[in-house]
Design a protein that fits this description.
about 45% helix; alpha/beta; 12 helices; two-stranded antiparallel sheet; globular; about 350 residues
Length: about 350
Amino acid sequence: MTVESKPYPEADHVKHLTGNRKTVGTERTTQSSANVAHGVMFHHFHGGSHPVGQGSISAEDLANLLEFVGPHRILSAREWLQRAIENRLNSEDVCLTFDDNLMCQFDIALPVLQQFGLTAFWFAYTSVIEGKVEPLEVYRYFRTTQFESVDDFYKAFHEAIEGSSEAPLVRQQLRLFDSATYLSECSFYSDSDRRFRFMRDEVLGPERYSAVMDRMIASANLSHEELGRGLWIGAEQLRILSGQEHVVGLHSHTHPTRLNRLSHGDQRAEYERNHAFVTQTIGAPPRAMSHPCNSYNASTLAILKELGIEVGFRANMIWLPQYVDRSLEHPREDHADLMKQMCDSRV
């Protein structure tokens, strides 16, 4: 097979760095975990009714990538989980993980896994399964389908800010922005990607960012409900996955992009509701999770332990020395990095 699409950078699943010592993800306190057992992280796929977007890959891309990694190295999700719990993982062991319970994963990626006889971890945030339309994925779909390129979206986003009350704050804070250091561990991000994420996450924050995006969506005569239709899988698909020996795990209830900034009580509410829904849906308490947007802290880890979670995943290939128990911080390699390695190997 040949690679069908370029390894675009991921769109919204940010591997956050902050300057807060208590916040997991600080660049100054990290070390590489390249030679340890790890997961491979996937988000978006295109094909059929699912459009090409920033970070998306095709079924053929996925098949090529699995061949590149080596199917013999990829453990079934349940075997990887058990080995991790028993501290029996070997350095070459790899597992597959899918975040955000997206329908494109179920439609495009699952058949490829079935062809290879592989299973994976599927980490679900559950508010969307209950019927709430969460804006994170809606905003991504909007910029994927309504603009010729992501750079066209960035231009429109800047223009929307310039005509708003947020403009002075953004101009002031952008003077502090350094594309060489912000999200530096995400090699697949362009300077424009980093600049956008800095404005979104560090300057505007959830409420002001949503206000800008909602104005843009309204100007296009669209709604959240229209854009969100068909983006996520439901409880039925989670039951199918669990019944086929995949591992369904937690990813918070509403997918906050800055979960580590929530209070201990709010974090607990996120994961307790997530845990209750998954337990009821698959008929057993979940044992695994991944940290949404790589955002968590010591409170998060304590809550997860109390809920009986035994294995957790970060969103990059970094070990963190500030925690002795690494069971909830297994590293993952983004598929975009592997796509680049695969393409480079063919040059």
